[in-house]
Amino acid sequence: MDEELDPDQDNVNCVLDQESSELLDILTSQSPAVIMKLCQMMPSGGAWGPISHGSLSSVSAEHSVAEHSRALLDYFRTADAAECRSFLQSVCMLCTDIPMWLESRLMSVSGFPTNDTVSSPNVTEDQSASSPSAEEQLIKRPRIDYWERYVAAVQSLLLRRWEQIREHLVMDVQIENVWVRPRTTNRGRDRPDKTPGPDKTPGPADRGSRTPEADVDYGTESKVTLETFLQGCTGNITVLCGLAGSGKTLLMSCLGQQWARKLGPIPSSYLFVLLEFRQLNLLSRPMSLSELLLQHYLPPEGSLEEKNAIVEYLLSNPERICWVLDGYDEFHSKISRKAVQRDREQLDPRTPVPVADLISGLLHHQILPGCTVVVTCRGRDVMDLEGLADKEGHLMEWSSHEIQQYVDRYFSRKGHSGCGIQAAELLLSNRHLRSMSSTPALCNICCICLDHLLQGLRDEERRGETRGAAGGGGGSHTQTGDGEERRRTSGGVTMDGRNGRAHLPPIVPQIPSTLTQVYLTVLGAFLSRSPDKGAGGTRGITQSSALTQYRSELCELSQLAWKGLDQSRILFLEKDVPRNILEFSVKTGLFSKVELRQEDGAVVNAYCFIHLTVQEFLAALRIMTSSEVSDAHLKKRFSLRTRWTTKLDQRTVFTDSLYLYVCGLASPNCTSVLVQLTKGEQLQRTTSWVHKRQELIRKLLKQLCQNTSLTGPKVLELCHCVQESQDIQLAKEVVLTRRVLELRNIRLSPSDIDAVAFAVNSVNDKDIGLDFGACSMELECLDVLPRCRTIHLLSFHSRKYDDKFAEKVSSVLPRITSLRKLEFCGANLTATGAATLASALQNCPNITEINLSDNNLKDEGIKHMTDIFTKLPQIISVKLGRNNTSLKAVDYLIGKISSCLNIQHIHANGNKETTVTFSQTSDMNSLLNQKWSQSEMQKVAKSLAHCPALSVLDLSGGQWDIKTLRTLTQFIPRFNITDKIIVNDSCSSVEALVSLTALLCKCPAVTELHIRADLILSIVKDVVEPVPKQIHHSCNYPRVLSRVNEWFSAKTCPSHWITVLSCVFFSVSNNTISLEGAAALAGALCSHDNLTQVHIRYSVLVDCAVQVDHLPALRTIIQKCPFLTDLDLSHNMLGEEGAEFVCSVLPSLPNLTSLSVGSKEHSGTVVEKLSEAFVRSPSVQLTLTYESVSSSLSHCVWSSSGGLQLLKTLGHCVLLSFLSSKCVFLCFYSKSGLCGCCGLSFRLEGWRMAEKGVEQLAMATPLWTDLRHISLSKNLIDDQSGVTVLEALRSCTGLEELHLSSNSLGDLTAASMALVLPSLTNLSVIDISENHIGNEGSVHLSKAITCMKKLTKINLTSVGTSELCAVAASLENCPLIQDVGLGWNNCGDNVALELARILPFCEKMIRLDLECNSVSPEGAEVLVRALRSCPTMHIIRLWKNKICPTEAERLSLWDRRVSFSST
Length: 1463
Prior knowledge:
This protein is α/β, with parallel strands linked by helices. Among the domains are: 9-138; 144-187 and 210-336 and 351-396, 3-Layer(aba) Sandwich (Rossmann fold), CATH 3.40.50; 515-630 and 664-682, no CATH class; 761-885, Leucine-rich repeat, LRR (right-handed beta-alpha superhelix) (Alpha-Beta Horseshoe), CATH 3.80.10.10; 887-1027, Leucine-rich repeat, LRR (right-handed beta-alpha superhelix) (Alpha-Beta Horseshoe), CATH 3.80.10. The protein is built from 57 helices and 44 strands. It has a 19-stranded mixed β-sheet. Strands 35-36-37-38-39-40-41-42-43-44 form a 10-stranded parallel β-sheet, with no helix packed on it. A 7-stranded mixed β-sheet has the order 2-1-7-3-6-5-4. Helix 25 (612-625) packs across helix 27 (658-665) and helix 46 (1136-1145) runs parallel beside helix 47. Keywords: ATP-binding, Leucine-rich repeat, Nucleotide-binding, Repeat. GO terms for molecular function: ATP binding. Residues 236-378 form the NACHT domain.
């Protein structure tokens, strides 16, 4: 209990002065009546006028209250002790909303009521009457006294507990030296108001806090001391996580003793309640919070009145208690995540409820709102507390320095300080011991193990010395340079002559190579502590002998360990353990003792294994040596640990390493140990049983190795298990089924990378990739990476990877000799990091691809990377996009072309994408969306002028003004471009467009000028020899349209256009020009004998017939172009007059080879007229369209004569290659006329053709031996008719495409496909979507697909069955497959898994459609992983599957080729 202050003048007035600011805030918030009553205690109290209640809300009234309050404090600061004590007593009695820490202090300093107030000469009788009576003052004082007495008792309890713990500690615990990695928590709810405590206004009790709270951002990788982390935790819920054995319980006990000594971050005025969940498990009956505190934690010694007073004080001051709940991972119940509302219902602390509900109430602030709660647990249990914690931190593992300190201290206490250095070196050099030692408890076990091994060496040395002394050899003496004498013993230990310190011996103990064997050695070390059993004891005997000697005890212990894990138990009462086993375990150190308080308050002893991993290892021994654990039970329980924690995961806190040890015991190296520990009458039978159990484990591991749906954390755990088993074949299975090991959002240690290296190195002739995404890792992990000898891809992508990380990566890159691809994208890399990477990459001669996109390299970083281009002989691609660069970086890249001749293509799209590809010859530059000014264009153009020969230069998207564009045109003649320059969407005006066309005259090398939609411009150059020039002009911008129309309607055009005498092709399609304009243009061009093609498409003659008076002029112009080969009059709505016009001009065009005509009339008259002319010009390729649809000869209702005329025409067309007759209703005679056509591709879609039509078609089909394409979609073909069609197609051996969608095909047709399609060896496209094929039909279809080696596209959308696994599997035999449609079939994960399996074999796959199926996130994730081996894949569509938006977004981030949209 705090020492009560003496009520003398100095103390009481000093306290009032210290707390005057806090008291002023309290007084100014009181009612005027309270202030006036306090003012009457002053001698001049009556002089203060009353404060009017009516003016209470006014500013003057508030000011008056403040004035009165200041006057009170000013007076009593200097008043005598009696008056000051009376005033403070009155304040505590009359005022409200006083923080309890302040009230407690004021009551303590003011003391009990006395008659001083009455006897004071300055206090009148009326003033004395207004002071609080003694009875009123005695109401609060007992509660505070009882509370402080109980606090003092708890302090004594925690100090005694700490002294007991401290006896067994190797090193002192200091929370200011313990590091925590804080995490920001996302709380989606309001917290109750908390009364500010001493953490806001520190009192004397809080001055022991040595580390101020750091103003840091608690990010993922930041770290603070535990003391700093806990500061400010008052009134909040704080969660502290750590590995098993990381010292959470020890630290909470240390925190308690610091509180008891008025030190540390927890205010000493609080009540510190330390509860362990392992003890709460013993409380089975409902219990109230008061019972939990006053019966289970620490019963007070006083009466019931005292207990009630403590409870009352606690209920009225909930902010004065700190609950420390230790070891939530051991709690048998889980905290229910309740929806916490702002007006949530409070629970009565006096009402008995289950213990789990009590804990939940504290965490949800339904009990004692505003109290402080600190919870410790292991990492995976944080999910149970999600949304509850205000602050969350993870205890950091020990560094190498901390481990070395502990080892030195351990051996110093043992009296072997000279061995401490050697032990530390041995420990840090072994990956398993180093990983174990990162937690204090396991570090202690490692020291015990090393002490055991070194003790064996010391014994051996002593025996050697004894033998040497007996032989008279002694030791050799040497004299050092400084006169120090040293003696070298026969055992090889150098002894210091002055102080006898032993130096490192030349012989070192052999450390096991696997973690399982390490624990076998640990077990032997603990057994060596056992007292003698028979002659000689255990010290000095081998591990094998010790295991044999204590086989019965180990069997009992392993059974107890397995039983505990099976029942989720860590603690064992004395009655649960046989007496001899209990004594044996305590003496060997395998057991540690703890005290438990039962429900009735009695304290009993309980025992637990020295560490959870020891219990797991012994349980693993039980599994591998006892037939009581059946094979079926083992198969059911065998699983891999995951480091991802989700709300849906079932907690398996006691089996983190169990099956890792089981896999290690399956190694042949452990067979002899297992045989020794297995009970059996015959050695041969026992050995056979052990071999069988080991083979079962390897079989289970093999199944996991072949499972391609494992997540990254489980793949990592699988690598650990395979490494423990030391099975090279299993390691090969791991990496051969997943060529890229993806590790996401987990924390990695060097031992993890070592396990990956074991798997990777098992395949020397295969290339494996490592992809680290947002993984936190120690820099020591990167030192282990070079052990992976076959890595070809190394990928890091996370904002946490910065320049320091890149510097460490750079130090190991040259040692990874197999590396070909490096990705460091989406990170936090700057120019500094780029410089270090560039320096390292120069020493990587095999590097071919570098990706540094989405960083912050800026121009300087780009320069660092481009400077090494010439030093990378094998480089193929470098990606540098999204790096906050400017034009300077692009200009530097262009300048590199002249010095780096193997640059093939530079692609720079604004500030988005920047990619450089390399080959032996320069090819193409793409500088897209560069918003350059005139000066910038001049600078870039000068650089381009110095570049070697480029085939293509793409400068699209610039939207430059005319000055900038003219600057470009001035430099184009100086460019060494062999093919073309593309400046799409770069002309911002008609004037700019006209200036570009001037290139046809000024630059003889320009052969073509393409000006297409949206001012797309393509300048085609040829530097070899002049060729005929072409102009393509088809613009859409309104300003350009009006200008072009102006040119043509005025019968004029740019003068330099007419000077292009060699023009052979002129297109002004897609312009709003009138017929007069078109005629004027044609007239201007008709003098050019070289003109062979004129395209006038999409003109303004929409929905109107050509006027009769226009046709003669157009006829005259066309007749003047006898060399015309291509005439396109489509989309001009020609009627009968237009057809007659065409017929009249065809005879004058002997060289015409292509004619496109459009008509607006849906009648056969136009067709008949055109057909007659078409017969007279058999060499012409006809394209006849009807403008209401996009298909040719569509939606026409013909007469028999019209159809017959068309068919006769088609019969003369030996070059006709395609006929579309969509929705054309021909008479029977016309249909039969089709039989005379050969070499056709038929699209007979929507004919509503049924059985009779199919029969007629089947009669004609055998004659079409050269048929390439046939489409019978959207007809009425039933299952039997489908068989007829397929039988008729047997003779069409050249068939390439078969479309039968939207019919009524079924299993019979599918069975026929299995017989017919294998004979159609050229078939590449098949579409049978929207039919009714069943499960049996899908099997037949898969047989057909297996034989279709040229298949490139298959559409099975909505085929009537979800059982398409066989179909998916058959695609493995289609090496050319590119497009697969399986949408709307309700396919599940089985189909997705099968597709993922075969995707690596489909090397040309581009598109996979699985929309509207039943694929779950797990199935989708497997597909995403398979994409790593499918570089050609463009998209996998997964719209409308069983994937929530959150999962869809997560998967899309993994690979953008996965689409969840409807388009």
